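Agenda item 2: protoporphyrin IX containing FE complex prediction
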Amino acid sequence: MTAVTREPRQIAELRREDRGLPWIGNLFNYQRDPLRLYRRHWEHYGPVAPSYNLGRTTVLLLGPDACGEALQNRDKAFANKPAWSQLVGPFFRRGLMLIDFDDHRDHRRIMQEAFTRDRLDGYTRRLHPAIERGMASWAAGRQFPAHWRLKQLTLDIAADLFMGGARDTSEAEMARVNKAFIACVQAAAGVVRADVPLTRWGRAYRGRQVLERFLRGYLPAKRATATDDIFSVLCHIETDDGARFSDDDVINHMIFLMMAAHDTSTITTSTILQYLGQHPAWQERCRAEALALGPAPDRAELESLVSIDLVMREALRLRAPVPVLVRYTVKDTVVQGVRIPADTMCALGIQFTHFMEEYWTNPMVFDPERFGPERREDRSHRFAWEPFGGGVHKCIGLHFAGLEIKAIMHRLLRGYHWSVDPGYVPPLDHHALPFPKDGQPIVLIRNS
Ligand code: HEM
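Presented output:
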């Protein structure tokens, strides 16, 4: 008997009604309601769906099987750099997420040294005073703009943990650096994608120069003395066989790391605040855990917070800070039996998977117990829950992120209680990473 090998299918033809606006394509439909758009494509085309955006055809990979194949990347057909640099621009060049294959493997091996258990212990010790300082100016109130305050807080934490407080820097200089950094992050949503004054990209080009100058100025001091901030750590880490980062590597990685760590942690904490504000029983349960620990728990204690961990996982499911990952094919490949030609931009619908009824019960409902030991819905498929991605580019900062988020929640729960209207639905901005445009106002009360 001869085995029947099935020829891969071609990508389906895009229906006229799915093309969206001339040239713009589905960009505005995505920004209005990404889930609706992806559901429509999934229902008609299945896991490998054609789409059209900004003048070109792209391919949507939908569901955990298709996303899993691209993330595992067995035939090395999917590359990060040509995909992500089209979105985030040249401002994060040579960051770990924007390099590929052997080059990526070599850099990741060195960077792994910055995220060992011992390093995480050190970062955790720094986290508490940084959070305390950052929250000191918080004024409780009935319209507390939680998302904006958390964004500032995670920036303040980054200034300390990443740059060691940049001790000799004046407040004005630090504000300039923060502004430059934000300009780089906001470039992703730019329509004019060139160095044109007064546009997002124009500001980001200037921003990158400011950041490079600033970091380069500190480099000699960071090289000279080993401290436990990430800047210094990147200057000193070394693999067993002696591989180290060059000065340029340190600067490129620093700029990318600050970007990778900032909005993602802000979005997760503000999502947690929203749901705990709408579910007071869960808030009390988490508070009891936070109160059972001392004022500055160490890494192991933060990692032992069971309820806060369940809530964090559920928040990451309901609002994945990076809802879509992108890849670019550097050669022909096949996903789910469909041939994808070389030079194709692919979008992996991470958030879409998180809402699939095939893998989650009542996926739109806040239900942290779904991650508990009896249910473990995240194990319904290896790629059912993928807020940190998967494969060789899986988030290297995921444990660090968990510690930062839990340390913020620990302090907040001990110092405050809060509520959010049960009917509140955040008006999300989907231009880049999803955030509540209204700043997510909550009623915040200081504990007596
Ligand atoms: C809740 C917080 C976070 C989320 C949801 C998140 C999500 C992700 C995702 C989805 C990727 C994979 C990108 C891809 O495959 O193309 C990624 C990569 C990465 N993340 Fe995170 N991240 C978070 C926090 C952090 C933090 C705190 C750091 C650093 C301290 C960090 C550093 C990185 C780096 C360096 C990469 C690139 C890894 C590589 O390409 O090898 N992330 N992150």
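Discussion summary: The pocket of protoporphyrin IX containing FE is lined by residues 80, 96-97, 108, 257, 260-261, 264-265, 268, 321-322, 325, 387-389, 393, 395-397, 400-401 (CB under 6 Å).
Owner for follow-up: CH.
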